[in-house]
Structures are given as structure tokens and as C-alpha cells.
């Protein structure tokens, strides 16, 4: 087949790497193109603070002189120190067929062996704080914002190279038509009466200060989750900056107890229909169809919802869910994707399913030894 897997070198090759899915998914009605500029920024060591504590490499599979697939590999010192492991990750996986997948995965494995990793996990694009998981159930429509999309064939190609399931990540859907009225209204009222919790909107005028408080909650509330990687101030600010234009203060409530931020939630509109409308390019004139389409979006995604350990089991989670449910409806959102949630996180899944949310998509992270 005259296949070559070549490293990405230079800004032009990096843009080819980012835009490659446009060619592979031509004609797929569910495909959402990347926002090229934002994706390039994430992979640029000069702009993303991730690369201050991690190393990564990127490759393109060339077939008959044309880009036909891609893969990345990364080693994160922060992950290793936090978990006491020597982990490697592959991500940004796209392949034209099983043979192309084999070449790409072996290239990533070889690099990770040289970098001292003992096992490889993926798809994880850089770290679990970025896009991760392979879609294995729920191919019935386009992905929601910042969630993966791939054809069903990828799972078999990865498994044929000796990878086995490490963990599944779940997306839950909550639909006003299926749930009916606010299922947590009564519970939330009881919590408000008996607990000195104050919910307030995000203060965008002090965005950096607010984000630092949220980072502290995030690093504590998620610290026991499988695959968690703590975020330092610079990287959290970098990631938060991409969501700032979409962050409605009313849909990012912060829970305080005696002035201390102890929990928060973040709901943003599913901008993917707007990204499709501008074909993933906001400039020079793509922002016009982007903004026009965004006004009509009725779907949202709850990206984060967490409470510090010492303040759990007081109903604060219910208050946050009740808040985003009510405010989301008031702003015209009738459906919400809650993602992602670990398949064995029963403390989070049980109450959500009880109020009417249902699992509608499943994403898999695979693992393979490297020795």
C-alpha cells in the first residue's frame, strides 16, 4: 500500500494533522469538523502549559502521497507522580483501515517504550483533562461539544492489536419531555431550608480569580476518580479560556458555605451545530453562521459538577442540579448531555438515573502493556 507513518514537524504539518478528519469523514452526516485554530493551540508546546510537565509526539499516516490517518502519544509527569505509575497514552486516533491502525498504534507504542512507559492507555488525547475515549455505543447522531466521534469499526481495529477495555465513560441524556417537571425541586427546597448554602453566579469580571477557586474544587472533588490528573493554575486557566465565551454566569453556579466555594457546576450550549454551520472556521466570516446557528441551539452539555469531599451528602449536589435545570430551561435548553461519568461512579449515576436521566452513549478507554 506504500504506507508511511511520518512525524509531524512544523506548523503546516500540524494543521494537516488537525484537519485530517475533514477528509476521512467526508459525507458523514454526523461529523463535526474541528475548530482548527483552537485545536492547533492545544497541540502547540509554546501555547499550552500541558507541555511544561509532559512530552508528546504526533504522526500522520501517508498513503500514496496523501494523509490517511493520524495518532499522538504522550507521557505526563504529573500523572506519573500522582498515581505512582509509568503510563503512556495514545490519542487523536484516526485510521483508514485495520492495517493503517496497526502501523499507527505500533508507532505510538515504540515511542512510548523509548520514553519509559510501562503500559499504554487510550484514546486519550494528551490527558484525561482533554478529549478522551472511543465511541462504542450511541452512533445515532452527531457528538455534543468536546466529545469524541468515530466509526464503529475503530473498536475492532484497536482490539485486534492486543488492547483490552480499561474503563468505560458514560454520557447521560436528560430530556424535558421524558422527565416532565423539575424532578429535584422539592428536595432542593428542603436543602435550602436546612443548610446554610449560597448559590451564586460566576463573576466574569473576576474571571481569573473565580477560575482559581473552581480549580481548587476540581482538584479535590475529582482526586479519587480513576485516571484523574490534577491541573496547575496555568493549565486550568488555559483550558478555562476556551470556555469563557460560552460561559453564561447563571449556568455556572458556585456553591458557598460561609463564603468558602465548596462546589460548582458548568453547563454550556452544545455549540457543535454552530461549528458545523461555519465548517470549523470562524475567520474571516465563519462567525456569522456560527452565531446565527448558536441562537437556535436547544441542547446543552453539563461538563462539570462537583463538591468538595467535606461538604458532600448535604444535598449541595441536588441544589446545583436543580439550579442548572431551572436556569437551563429558562434560557431555552430542553435537553442536556451529562458527560462524562465513569461507569462505576455509582454515587453520581444513581441519583441522575433516578430523576430520569438515561445512558445514551458509551466511550471506551483501552489499555495494553508495553513490556
Description:
The chain is α+β, with helices and mostly antiparallel strands. The chain has 2 domains: 3-169, 3-Layer(aba) Sandwich (Aminopeptidase), CATH 3.40.630; 175-361, Gcn5-related N-acetyltransferase (GNAT) (Aminopeptidase). It is 35% helix and 27% strand. The protein contains 13 helices and 13 strands. The chain has helices at 11-24, 36-42, 77-83, 98-114, 153-159, 176-179, 185-194, 207-221, 233-243, 272-277, 287-294, 316-330, 346-354, and strands spanning 3-7, 54-63, 66-76, 87-94, 119-122, 134-137, 164-175, 197-200, 254-257, 260-269, 299-307, 335-342, 358-369. Strands 1, 2, 3, 4, 5, 6, 7, 8, 9, 10, 11, 12 and 13 form a 13-stranded mixed beta sheet that branches. Strand 11 (299-307), helix 12 (316-330) and strand 12 (335-342) form a beta-alpha-beta unit. The radius of gyration is 21 Å and the shape is globular.
Amino acid at each position: 500500500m506504500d504506507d508511511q507513518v511520518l512525524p509531524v514537524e512544523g506548523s503546516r504539518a500540524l494543521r494537516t494533522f488537525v484537519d485530517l478528519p475533514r477528509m476521512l469523514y467526508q459525507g458523514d452526516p454526523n461529523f463535526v469538523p474541528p475548530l482548527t485554530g483552537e485545536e492547533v493551540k492545544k497541540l502547540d508546546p509554546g501555547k499550552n502549559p500541558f507541555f511544561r510537565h509532559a512530552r508528546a509526539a504526533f504522526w500522520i499516516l501517508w498513503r500514496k502521497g496523501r494523509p490517511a490517518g493520524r495518532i499522538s502519544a504522550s507521557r505526563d509527569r504529573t500523572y506519573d507522580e500522582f498515581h505512582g505509575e509509568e503510563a503512556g497514552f495514545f490519542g487523536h486516533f484516526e485510521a483508514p483501515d485495520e492495517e493503517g491502525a496497526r502501523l499507527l498504534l505500533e508507532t505510538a507504542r515504540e515511542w512510548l517504550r523509548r520514553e519509559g512507559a510501562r503500559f499504554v492507555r487510550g484514546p486519550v488525547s494528551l490527558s484525561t483533562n482533554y478529549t478522551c475515549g472511543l465511541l462504542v455505543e450511541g452512533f445515532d447522531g452527531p457528538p455534543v461539544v468536546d466529545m469524541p466521534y468515530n466509526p464503529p469499526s475503530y473498536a475492532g481495529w484497536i482490539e485486534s492489536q492486543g488492547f483490552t477495555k480499561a474503563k468505560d465513560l458514560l454520557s447521560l441524556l436528560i430530556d424535558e419531555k421524558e422527565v416532565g417537571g423539575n424532578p429535584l425541586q422539592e428536595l432542593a427546597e428542603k436543602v435550602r431550608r436546612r443548610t446554610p448554602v449560597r448559590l451564586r453566579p460566576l463573576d466574569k469580571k473576576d474571571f481569573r480569580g473565580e477560575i482559581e477557586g473552581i480549580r481548587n474544587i476540581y482538584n479535590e472533588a475529582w482526586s479519587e476518580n480513576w485516571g484523574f490528573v490534577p491541573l496547575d493554575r496555568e493549565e486550568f486557566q488555559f483550558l478555562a479560556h476556551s470556555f469563557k465565551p460560552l460561559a453564561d454566569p447563571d449556568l455556572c453556579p458556585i456553591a458557598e458555605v460561609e463564603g468558602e466555594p465548596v462546589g460548582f457546576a458548568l453547563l454550556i450550549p452544545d455549540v457543535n451545530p454552530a461549528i458545523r454551520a461555519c465548517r470549523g472556521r470562524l475567520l474571516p466570516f465563519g462567525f456569522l453562521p456560527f452565531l446565527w446557528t448558536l441562537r437556535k441551539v436547544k441542547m446543552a452539555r453539563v461538563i462539570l459538577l462537583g463538591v468538595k469531599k467535606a461538604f458532600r451528602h448535604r444535598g449541595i449536589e441536588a441544589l446545583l442540579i436543580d439550579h442548572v435545570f431551572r436556569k437551563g430551561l429558562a434560557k431555552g435548553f430542553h435537553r442536556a448531555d451529562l458527560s462524562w461519568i465513569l461507569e462505576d461512579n455509582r454515587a453520581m449515576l444513581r441519583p441522575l438515573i433516578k430523576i430520569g436521566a438515561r445512558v445514551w452513549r458509551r466511550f471506551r478507554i483501552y489499555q495494553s502493556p508495553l513490556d
